[in-house]
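Ticket #4471: complex job returned nothing on first submit. Input attached below:
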Amino acid sequence: MSSRREAVRSPEPAPLKLHVPEPAVRPGGTPDFSNIRIPRAGQVDRPNVDVDAEAIRDLAFSVIRVLNRDGEAVGPWAGALSDSELLEGLRHMMTLRAFDARMQMAQRQGKTSFYMQHMGEEAVSCAFRKALAPGDMNFPTYRQAGLLIAGGYSLVEMACQIYSNTHDPLKGRQLPVMYSSREHGFFSISGNLATQYIQAVGWAMASAIKNDTKIAIAWIGDGATAESDFHAALVFASTYRAPVVLNIVNNQWAISTFQGIARGGSGTFAARGLGFGIPALRVDGNDYLAVHAVAKWACERARRNLGPTLIEHVTYRVGAHSTSDDPAGYRPKTESEAWPLGDPVIRLKNHLIVRGAWSEERHKQAEAEILDTVISAQKEAESYGTLHSEQRPSARDMFEGVFAEMPPHLRRQRQEAGV
Amino acid sequence: MTRRTMIEAIRDAMDVMMSRDDDVVVFGEDVGYFGGVFRATQGLQAKYGTSRCFDTPISELGIVGVAVGMAAYGLKPCVEIQFADYMYPAYDQIVSEAARLRYRSNGQFTCPLVVRMPTGGGIFGGQTHSQSPEALFTHVCGIKTVVPSNPRDAKGLLISAIEDPDPVIFLEPKRLYNGPFDGHHDRPVTPWSKHDLGEVDDGHFAIPLGSAAIRRQGKAVTILAYGTMVHVAETAAAETDIDAEIIDLRTLLPLDLDTIEASVKKTGRCVIVHEATLTSGFGAELCALVQTRCFYHLEAPIVRVAGWDTPYPHAQEWDYFPGPARIGRALIETLEA
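Support reply: We reran it on our side without changes. The output follows.
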């Protein structure tokens, strides 16, 4: 700041210099999250769903939290879920984590080419899914598989997609983790970042045009908010008051790029909604109860035709970006341990123990059961083949589905390919 | 049967489809209340209401992006990009999303979407109101590309495009909106009301995508053209008195290769004409296909007449636009070869 002041005082402007934001710490340094301001649990108000964006500007700069350090649920956002619902939520997160671990290993064993984990972000998609109604449509990125798991999608089908085998619902056409399940309200994932954000707005507009009751849920990461589609989505959502919830999962990292590169030096990602007149909230993304409460609030707004809501989920990408990435090259190895919002699974577990609904023993037992379930799903999927096995979708499938009906030139090419 | 301009025929196609199918929605910049800068959507908002026909923010990526989402929901959006020259911000949504959605989701989600865009030059539109970007679409698997050359086709093809279960890029040669244009910029333009193809059936009728039309039967040479160039080619053939067979491709993808092949095998010569720039233009694909399919029937090298490999200039409009004189020279060249 002092240099800025000097610049103003000095009689002649100094030569210009390009500002390139840098994270506070690099490999070898001591992790430092002192720049992240975290209010105490229960501190942030819960406004009515018909509130004006202008009236809750401060929510875009705070963090809604329910679980306190002692594992108690406190404040106006607490109390929406029963013990059995929370136990189910815990199971979803544990399942996603176990599935991630197995698929990560499967990639290392050469059973598939690629995988992307959710480590540390399990609460975001798992808790959000519980706020949705049948028929609502998510437009996810590649890091919201919790929507599928919490939505009851089969682990076997997920693994089959990852293995690109004979039972792959997408016939081997898509890179692993680019799932699609219309039935489960999970729009087809694209490799092109942010494209689905504006599509979600269009889907929501369609629902409004048809006087339907379904809503759309848009998902984007912190890095991808820099794409033009993010801006377009906010413009259209605002203009047409589309029944859409616009989620930003701020996990601090876009591959090797810290979030300051996408966001710049001021404000928050949530604050970007304010310029568009969209109510914007920030939530503790590692607090299952908070994510769910905020999701429910935003979904209710959308369903009551009150328009879009922007939610920034503050979390941390504990794992590598993908199986092709090594975070040790750009951030301290122990950074995730220093993350002030902790681990979503442990926090919910502790809360349930505090409530007397859970125990360490039952948790260990559940971990073992879940691992068994995941392994047996994995084994079943492997019985239908893995990437380099003989059991693969047919080369004939490669030519299908480009169009509803195969045009003559594709028929000729299929013939030429000898399939 | 009613005499219509191309604009009227296009508007009528949307009107017919909006009245037949509640899922058809029309939107774009200035498309709603005002009825479009070319009047293609005039009256539609008043007739069908603001939730079926509406104005959008100036964001091509937004227009196509929301349309993809609507199509995934089950609507049939027919959207407008004000000029084809301005489609580039939407290109990612067209190429990476609309075109791939059926394939990548194994049919769980589809994209029955039409993107209308005025295309082509000959109107002193300069660099950003004259381009012909069709080759940027034909290269993309999963989308269909249509270019009508007259009111009757424009209506029948647009109805087919809206009914098609897959995304269609519908390029409308704006030079033809009010009348056929033969490239003689120094002569008055005949309105569509004086042209046979300005007679357009009322109500619903469809011209299937993927079928070409033979505009002139001939024996000496085959001319492959589409859009404005169909009319310029007709004039060039008449002025050189060459018995050319003129094929209006109408749909570039899927392509009616059978009609092309039969004609070139008959004539033994082929001239390809388009306004778009030459290198890697759609003419190159046509040239390769004709060469492969008709090699033993060809009596001369295939000739391409196209826009020069430069941005579309303003002052040099008629030095750039492939007019009847250039096409005529190409016809003579191929016959003398």
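The mean pLDDT of chain A is 96. Closing as resolved unless it happens again.
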